[in-house]
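Researcher: I'd like a candidate sequence for this fold, 427 residues long. If you have to choose between options at a position, lean toward the conservative one.
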């Protein structure tokens, strides 16, 4: 069965709910620990990294949904775990004021639950999309669901920020609990009935998790795509922790101005996603592989320009280049997600969840590793090179090289054939 546009939008609501909870953990609670509690930034940084690291369990969640033959229970269960983790993380904040060690221990447990919840819910959701979305709709489905997740992040951040004034621990706990409950309810209502009886996958024969992973890793396409995901997402996340400091140190931007720069970058991402969704699905222009390659090369060129502007450019030129980077990042992201949905159904049937899980784990590891790599390389280059501009510029050029390597790997891994309008396994 092919998912209707309404069903795709309903699954997008699940992504929106997921983003709503996660942003509270990575943004609101992060700020509370650093500002209100005056804790070292490394502590919330460690907790955020932990939730990424825990997502190495994604292959296990995908494998379990493959064996059970249903995705829906795992999506709902994952969201419940995520909401519980978020509530425990919020409860740990006031505890840190009086019992720091105990509060940190509870926070570690909470962020581990958050990572497990994201892994279970997100992996199973993507597997459902991969097996039930018509090939011609995959780019649009990727665009819709990810834009709805971004919308969930933006709306939650804005509303929470307004409701938290004047701040109190009690008020914060009420808000987090409300968001968690609403997210679980929305997820349940949105997904029930989408996975209809004729879309339920056949149960596969009994085998261990390690046997299942070994089987998928033995598939050349799945293995090569895993490498592509890790390499490209490392490049994608390398600038996450260094772009704003670069703008401040080299271009003299204030904290508010550098934050705005991050906002316009996300605006570029939005435009890139929308463009690919419309051109690829609505107008059927160019295959997904071409969009991935164009996104990688465009991102590389934008990063090279950002590096050069540190020596000869202006603030306005930097802003334009950052918008360009966001645009090509968005183009690459939608193309890669759409390609993932297509490749998940290639190979042995009934293993789609395991494949998506492996790729999700590669993405999560790359997200944590990429940010750490970028920050570490900047620190190293600042010790070696004479100026901040050349130090940061060198790292941006290295990131550009990773994107070029990713584009070359995409040529090898992804099919150049136009998307078929025929059915895929599970449809």
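Model: Candidate sequence:
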């Amino acid at each position: 069965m092919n998912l209707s546009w309404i069903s795709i939008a309903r699954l997008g609501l699940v992504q929106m709910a997921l983003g709503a909870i996660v942003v509270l953990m990575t943004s609101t609670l992060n700020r509370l620990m650093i500002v209100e509690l005056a804790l070292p930034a490394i502590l919330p940084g460690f907790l955020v990294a932990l939730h990424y690291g825990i997502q190495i369990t994604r292959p296990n969640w995908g494998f379990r949904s493959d064996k059970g033959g249903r995705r829906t229970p795992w999506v709902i269960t994952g969201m419940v775990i995520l909401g519980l983790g978020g509530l425990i993380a919020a409860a740990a904040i006031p505890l840190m004021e009086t019992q720091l060690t105990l509060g940190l221990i509870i926070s570690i447990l909470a962020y581990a639950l958050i990572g497990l919840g994201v892994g279970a819910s997100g992996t199973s959701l993507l597997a459902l999309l991969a097996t039930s979305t018509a090939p011609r709709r995959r780019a649009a489905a990727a665009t819709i669901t990810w834009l709805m997740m971004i919308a969930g992040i933006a709306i939650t951040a804005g509303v929470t920020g307004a409701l938290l004034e004047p701040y109190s621990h009690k008020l914060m706990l009420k808000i987090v609990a409300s968001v968690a409950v609403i997210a679980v309810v929305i997820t349940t209502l949105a997904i029930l009935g989408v996975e209809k009886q004729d879309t339920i996958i056949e149960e596969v024969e009994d085998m261990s998790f390690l046997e299942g992973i070994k089987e998928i890793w033995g598939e050349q396409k799945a293995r090569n795509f895993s490498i592509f995901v890790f390499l490209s997402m490392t490049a994608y996340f390398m600038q996450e922790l260094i772009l704003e400091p670069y703008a401040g140190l080299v271009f003299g931007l204030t904290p508010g101005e550098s934050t705005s720069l991050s906002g316009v970058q996300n605006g570029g991402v939005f435009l890139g996603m929308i463009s690919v969704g419309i051109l690829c699905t609505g107008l059927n222009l160019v295959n997904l592989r071409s969009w991935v390659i164009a996104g990688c090369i465009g991102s590389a060129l934008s990063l090279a320009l950002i590096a050069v502007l540190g020596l000869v450019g202006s603030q306005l030129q930097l802003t334009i280049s950052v918008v360009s980077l966001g645009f090509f990042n968005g183009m690459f992201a939608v193309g890669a997600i759409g390609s993932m949905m297509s490749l998940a159904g290639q190979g042995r049937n009934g293993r789609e969840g395991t494949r998506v899980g492996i790729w999700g784990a590669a993405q999560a590891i790359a997200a944590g590793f990429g940010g750490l790599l970028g920050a570490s390389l900047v620190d190293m280059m600042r010790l070696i090179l004479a100026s901040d501009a050349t130090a940061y510029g060198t790292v941006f050029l290295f990131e550009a090289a990773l994107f070029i390597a990713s584009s070359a790997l995409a040529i090898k891994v992804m099919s150049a054939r136009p998307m078929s309008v025929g059915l895929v396994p599970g449809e």
